[in-house]
Amino acid sequence: MSTYLVAMTVGEFQHIEGQGKIGPQIRLHTTPGKKRLERTLNYHIQAFEYFNRLFDFVDPMKKVDVLVVEDFEVAGMENWALIMYAEKIVFYNDHSTMMEEAVTVGHEVAHFWFGNLVTMKWWDDLWLKEGFATFLGHQLAADNYPELPSWEFFLSNGLERAREVDSLISTKAVLAPIQADQLDYVYDSIRYTKSAHFIRMLCDQHAYGNVVSDDLWAAFMDATGMDLKTTYSAWITNPGYPVISVATSSHPGEVTFSARRFIASGALDPNHLGCFGAVDFVQLNPECTGFMIVHYDRALFGKLLNAYRNKELTDVGRFTLVSDTAHLVRAGMSNIDDLVDLIVLSRKERSFMVLSPIADAIDGIRTWLWDSEEYVLSFHFSQFVEHMFNDTLQDIDLGRRELFLAKELRRKIKASTANKVAERDVVWNFMKYNWNTQGLARLLGSPTSRKRLETLSHTLSSFANSTVIQEAKSLFTADQRLTVNGYLRRMEERMTINKRQHELHSRNLRRWLAKRGYGTFFEFQKHNYGEQSRM
């Protein structure tokens, strides 16, 4: 057993226990007085039964203890025979936490096969355990709890985070050399979510052993007789992902497409991947099964707008079009008109899958407008957004399966129309004046330091002010900066991208809004005078 899986605990606990037809005895421990334990116990019993059958390889543990910890920096940890969870994952009885709990339990139990029974040889191959566990946690929830929309949430949140990080120049490949002092940096959405697209079971051949990525390709070869390494290993060994450019051809009924690396800053990757043959076209990557961005020429995008308007695309297809367009606009590869046109066409949209990237795009636009001191333009854009989504919050269906999605959608829409920038500034000022450099030095390499660095990165990554990154760097000693350099590079790159948005899009957005009646300075003055007169 790998040493990182060893855990022990001492304390006063209460517990309940149970066992399924296939799997270990489960004992669930909490501090005294906690209730609602049966659901968590049943999730574990169901997970062990599900994976034992799925893998056709019974985990050797006869007993597994589960401990719910009040103060725990991560959602869960798969220690072999002593799984630990944060209380926030377990004790709240609504659809949001039910889904998070089901997926997290599936993730940690899946690690008993991917991570515990079969362990990566070194941290380079972290994706082997985290990618599989992430995928299988959602698969378990989808197969056993159909009322919980696990795959919708995986696409709209997990996949989007991975694509944002992987569009940065500073990103790393899924499979890359890792030093022991870099572990804080490698537990990210690239290893968890991007790698979740590469699924295969290795337990039978590598039980109680260590694996490397080549073992995965060998397992594929044995199962299919096909050499998949030549085709697919590039997705693991290279950073980033492609943008596929689709254009109409001179031959009627045909389109051509080419590919290159997608970079959010708009920098061009000199390695052009070539041009592929002409094909009949409907919508490329309509179910978002490929880790890519698709860029259409004007004629094809216009046809897709009509299909979007007429609901001829599936929910996932509409999600893909909105998400791809938002990424392309941010990179300066598409005009902001394309994105706001999609926002207009989404006025009567009620699908969480589609409105989630719409809300994220609105939030992004509002942030760079505020940071670039475009207050009048920001006011007009806010008017437009409120007009578009005035009825949405009241009209969302609250059917059983949609209950969580409706709550999450309300949260996203409210957040996208609120002024979160002022709150962000308050948080940053608090962090600056309460930062403990010496305390962090003692914690570097621990889950606690990773959480603090992630909070710092999340807070600062929406700024478009170049002085903020210098303030952030001053929080660390020279030695610490070497350790956290990856976080700092990502923050700096995101700030540069945010600052570039004003240069790329403010003029076109102002023109678009004015053309539709949202652009008079008189309205701005009237609104602000009214607000001041009521103070």
Automatic annotation (TrEMBL):
Gene3D superfamilies per UniProt: 1.10.3480.20, Neutral Protease Domain 2
Superkingdom of the organism of origin: Eukaryota
One cellular component term from this protein's GO annotations in UniProt: cytoplasm
Domain Peptidase M1 membrane alanine aminopeptidase: 40-231
Keyword terms: Hydrolase, Metal-binding, Metalloprotease, Protease, Zinc
UniProt-listed GO biological process terms: peptide catabolic process; proteolysis
Any GO molecular function: peptide binding
Family: Belongs to the peptidase M1 family.
Name of the protein in its database record: Peptidase M1 membrane alanine aminopeptidase domain-containing protein
